[in-house]
Design brief:
metal ion binding; Hypothetical protein af1432; globular; binds fe (ii) ion; mainly alpha; 68% helix
Length: 188
Amino acid sequence: MKKKKAIKIVEEKLPKKRFEHSLRVAETAVKMAEIFGGDAERVEIAGILHDYAKYDGLSKLYQKVTKYELDNALLAYNSEILHGPVGAAIMKHEFGVDDEEIYLAIYHHTTGRNQMTLSEKIIFVADYIEPGRTQPGVEEIRTIVFEEQKLDKAIYEISKRTVLYLVEQDHVIYPLTIDCLNYYNLEK
Ligand SMILES: [Fe+2]
Ligand SMILES: [Fe+2]
């Protein structure tokens, strides 16, 4: 999919604030691709598209998990997790986006996983640090990315914060998120 088309479908689908977040994730991802040797064009498209399914209702998300034969275990989770895998499947099956790295980057942006491709890593981190983000500790992650230039360390720190938050909220944690935490703890 070309950039222009990606922007068009996301702008039509998402509320303005989320559309603008998507563009900032894409811009951040391009910047990161230059630093870490990634494919700028690919992560730009993945960044624009990553939140496409963010506001689909839970029943619609569930339907697509079944229709596109995604991991059935996903059905125990909420849209915060589901919009990644489902968004990836929508792009693949409904928009003909046939690039595996873009698929994986959209798919795992909500959970992370062990052994991510470079595009997955970039989108996972860019989503967390794009300039519109203001969560506590975000500046520390930006320093790790842009000054220390340690991508795996950034992934570990993001996973750690996410898991701590989820535990604090008594949420069940998707197993890939734990895999991500453990794997990048050893890689960092
Ligand atoms: Fe998202
Ligand atoms: Fe996002």
